[in-house]
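Lay summary. Proteins are chains of building blocks that fold into shapes, and those shapes determine what they do. In this project we predict the shape from the chain. Here is one chain we studied, written as its sequence of building blocks.
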Amino acid sequence: MKKKEIERISQRLISKPKLVWDAIDEREKKRVFDFDKGYQDFLNKAKTEREAVNVISDIALKNGFPSNPSSTYPIRLMKAFQGKSIALSVSGDKPIDEGINLIVSHLDSPRLDLKQNPLYEDVDLAFMKTHYYGGIKKFQWLTRPLAIHGRIIRSDGSSLDIVVGEDDADPVFTVADILPHLAKKVQYDKKVSDAFVAEKLNLMVGSLPFGDKDTKERFKLAILNLLNERYGLIEEDLISAELEVVPAGKARDVGWDRGLTGAYGHDDRSCVFTSLRAVVDIRNPHKTALILFVDKEEIGSDGATGAKSRFLESVLADLMIAHGKQPLYHEIQKILMNSRAISADGNGALDPDFQDVHEKRNAARLGYGVCLVKFTGSGGKYGANDANAEYVGWLRNLFNKKKVVWQAAELGKVDEGGGGTVAKFLATYGMQIVDCGPSILSMHAPFEIAHKADIYMTYKAYRAFLES
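And here is the predicted shape, written in a compact code that computers can read:
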């Protein structure tokens, strides 16, 4: 057999992931960079769940999504709940009874939360106690500029939203660390899990006293006086507050060629933004398209605004009424069982310096497009959704048809660890669902890395899915 014939057979039979940059033309390469500008702007404005919901609402309103279902075709719906979850929908040609195309992503990201009684002083400095949220490496949050975002409910019932540490004129906050000269016993001789203690993730917030040397707790009092003068707060107001400590600073281009984006919150706001843009850009989908943005994924999807809540059913009930149908329970269940869904979440990219924890044949790579992840979980697929072959086959054929550059992936070697997503909770409705999103390097770190081409291909994949 001739060499050319062997090459032709090889190309036809062997599956090889494609580098996005090799698969697209110059015009689409420009779209990659143009798309990223909007994405970075979103990341800068949406560092918390509440901020993300506000930005999503603003974008949706500007693109014809009313807070109540419209009476004209196509029916559009926007519904927010408790300021921490939101849904957008566009009706399709087919009856809603035949199911919907659903994309679910999560708004929350790992961070530090202030405790309810946070403020104290020690060695003539003022601090605030924190409780970490989600899976973090604690040492990554030390000695870096941090900002405070959140909402406070005052004693008179009024609310106050604050952001401190993002503007160039703002102060920032930080968590101190022991100098290397004295770290041998307290850090170097210990396991990482023991060397960095959660109760020592204390936020440094002040250093100037209030009153004279006889004043009690004068450093704590100085901060309380400042908060009272600036915001009208008293200490008890901090009990009824949700204050999140996040990395200060904006998303940035990474590398000489600017091909990567570095930022806090790629997991999972990369999927939030791409699915938002997808639902805004679609026109006349065949099936009703529904985008669901939920909270609490990083801590198990519990609570009123997580994926385990009844928010999805409530949204479907509103959609049924808009379509002239009674929102009966069994009818809602029928719709869900007839639906196709994507759990839109990031996947850990193959780390060049830690390749031994990945199984390279099945590891996601930066720059190779959106990841199609058949199963999640850990070990023997515990805590996993495992999509069926028929659905994976349908989706990969759709992506190929729409020229979406994609790759199959899983998270790490079988016994190295793993992770779950919202898919397993929504799968209980009987819908077909699979994980699909970009790969991310330094995942769950304060500064994560994503490839701009992967972000664009994620948008392209979600749009193709919603229009199918």
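What the prediction tells us: The longest strand covers residues 111-122.
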